[in-house]
Amino acid sequence: MLLQEVKEQVFKLPPRDRLVLIIAIIESLQDTNVSSSERSSAIRRMRGLLKTDQRAPTDAEVAAMLEERRVQKYLQ
Prior knowledge:
The protein is mainly α. It has helices at 3-12, 15-30, 36-50, 59-75. It is flat.
C-alpha cells in the first residue's frame, strides 16, 4: 500500500482509532535506532532553517520589544 493510500484510509477512521494508530506508530519508532550521521544531518538542516543575515537583538532590544507587545496587548 502506498503512503498516499494509507493517508486516505487514515482520514476515514474515527478519531479514537486515529489516536490509537498514532500511539502504535510512536511505539514503533521508539524501537528504531537513528544513526548519529542521520541525527547530525537533521540538526544541520534545522540550523540552516534558523540562519538569518540579521544580527541577534540585544537584551535591551528584546526588552523593548516585549514592553511594546505588552502595551499593545493590555493598553489598547
